[in-house]
Design goal:
Layout (H helix, E strand, L loop, with lengths): L7 E5 L4 H12 L3 E5 L5 H8 L3 E3 L9 H4 L5 E5 L8 H7 L4 E4 H9 L3 E6 L4 H14 L4 E9 L4 E5 L8 E6 L13 E4 L7 H4 L2 H12 L7 E5 L13 E6 L5 E9 L2 E8 L2 E8 L4 H17 L3 H9 L9 E5 L4 E5 L4 H14 L5 E5 L4 H15 L4 E4 L16 H6 L5 E3 L5 H6 L5 E5 L8 H12 L3
Parallel strand pairs: 1-2, 1-4, 2-3, 4-5, 6-9, 6-10, 7-9, 10-11, 11-12, 12-13, 17-21, 18-19, 18-21, 19-20
Antiparallel strand pairs: 7-8, 13-14, 14-15, 16-17
Helix pairs in contact: 6-9, 6-10, 11-12
Length: 465
């Protein structure tokens, strides 16, 4: 099926961050786009405002009538998070319409472009969005489908009107369900390979094997940009050019890292170039590391020093990645998507560096029963860095409950006593008894629905407007 043959695109799970970027892609390209999702969210409402018709009941009768007369011109796209008993998906399978996973379509779209793909168990969204922004600043005409909403553009799709076959595609290479094996990048970045998605892989060894297979799909004239501490695990294909990176190790490094007025400054050393006094307003040592990878990719593509400096200085970040909601001398409120122990550790380490001596209150919503079961010890150790912790119930996403698995598992393993369990509907009440100096909401579930109510309550309580 070619792009010209497609008139209608129907998304099952359109509200997912990756799915919504694809929906926007097809909508901008003049296709009739429809979708289903389980719940209405600010993102689905934005898609509706952009002209996409969405419904929220899993009912074959709700499928738009336009599909029935044009099945041969219709593409159905679904996410692996959709359950196997989904009524609409099973009904459509019986009609003979073309049905593809999101990852297959992403691979098909990027095939015609020079592609930069960012893989890793964390760091993908920030690194890929940095690259997209730098390429825009450098007038390199990027096409970017991202896993987060860039604050500069209020979108997860960057699509230049002058795109052509010389455009550069920037995408996230998602390891979940081995989705990234549909990509064939020219430049690939691997940011991390911590044990995760064990419901898919079983153990880290199988994840490593899958990442190796992804690396083997890099164009033979291309480049791998690899986090330095992954060299032992991820041997590269013979003849493939590889640059390693890190904060203080690898071929490409950040040197002279310092914090001034809440921003990070550093010097880049790598691939024969030195760029001094780079400013990054998205704080965090882990984000400095992400920036080193992004700079390396963009220098390889051909950006110059001034474009790098200007691009990173103007980069505002991604929503829910170290996103400031309140930033005053007496109170700071940050929202972050961290949902793996390594990510939570990196977040809290950075916050403590930025705000030494301040009381840190962390509200954490665990994501997935299986991840909580597998990493309860890691979550407890990471959260112990905070002065006060509020644990919400587990967000199940695609999973059914697992007997004996709950937020209590994390609480029982924590060493300090300033931790409490709190039901979602009681969160604002729980917070009223707290006097945070630095407040964090952390998690990849639906904790973001509390962000504005919390910010509003705090502004009213402390008279911050």
């Amino acid at each position: 099926m070619t792009n010209e043959q497609i008139h209608i695109v129907y998304f099952i799970g359109i509200g997912g961050i990756g799915m919504s970027a694809l929906a926007r892609w097809f909508n901008i390209n003049g296709k009739q786009v429809y979708g289903y999702d389980r719940t209405e969210t600010p993102l689905t409402r934005k898609l509706t405002d952009e002209g996409i018709e969405i419904h929220y009941e899993d009912d074959p009768n709700q499928i738009p009538a336009a599909l029935s007369g044009q099945l041969d011109k219709t593409l159905v796209i679904y996410t692996p998070a959709v359950p196997k008993d989904h009524r609409e998906l099973n009904y459509l399978k019986e009609t003979g319409v073309v049905i593809k996973k999101r990852a297959e379509v992403l691979g098909w779209i990027t095939r015609e472009y020079y592609t930069v793909a960012v893989a890793g168990t964390h760091g993908k969204t920030t690194t890929s969005s940095m690259i997209a922004h730098l390429l825009l600043i450098g007038a390199r005409n990027p096409v970017a489908l991202l896993g987060g909403i860039m604050q500069e553009y209020e979108s997860n799709l960057i699509l230049n009107s002058n795109r052509n076959t010389r455009s550069i595609a920037v995408v996230e290479a998602d390891e979940y369900d081995r989705s990234f094996l549909h990509l064939h990048p020219d430049i690939a970045i691997v940011t991390s390979a911590d044990a995760d998605h064990l419901d898919i892989y079983g153990k880290r060894l199988h994840l490593i094997e899958s990442i190796k297979e992804f690396i083997s799909r890099i164009d033979h004239k291309g480049m791998l940009i690899l986090k330095e501490d992954l060299q032992h695990d991820l041997s590269t294909a013979p003849g493939l050019k590889c640059e390693t990176y890190g904060l203080d190790s690898g071929n490409c490094q950040a040197k002279k890292i310092r914090i001034e007025d809440g921003s990070f400054y550093f010097d880049y050393h790598g691939i024969g170039k030195v760029i001094r006094n780079i400013r990054l307003d998205m704080p965090g040592y882990h984000n400095v590391e992400n920036a080193v990878a992004a700079i390396t990719a963009c220098l390889t593509i051909g950006l110059n020093q001034l474009e790098i400096l200007g691009g990173l200085a103007s980069y505002k970040g991604v929503k829910r990645r170290f996103e400031y909601l309140i930033r005053t001398p007496k109170l700071v409120y940050i929202d972050d998507y961290a949902h793996h122990p390594t990510e939570v550790h990196a977040l809290l380490t950075s916050v403590k560096s930025l705000y030494p001596g301040k009381k840190i209150t962390a509200i954490f919503q665990p994501h997935l029963f299986s991840r909580t079961r597998d990493f309860a010890d890691g979550f407890a150790k990471s959260l112990d860095q905070a002065d006060e912790v509020i644990l919400l119930d587990i967000y199940p996403a695609r999973e059914q409950p697992i007997e004996g698995v709950g937020s209590q598992m994390i609480m029982d393993r924590m060493e300090h006593a300033h931790v409490q369990l709190c039901k979602d509907n009681m969160l604002l009440s729980c917070l009223k008894n707290s006097k945070p100096e630095v407040l964090l909401t952390i998690g990849a579930g639906d904790i973001d629905r509390f962000v504005e109510p919390i910010a509003g309550m705090l502004r009213k309580k402390y008279h911050y407007e």
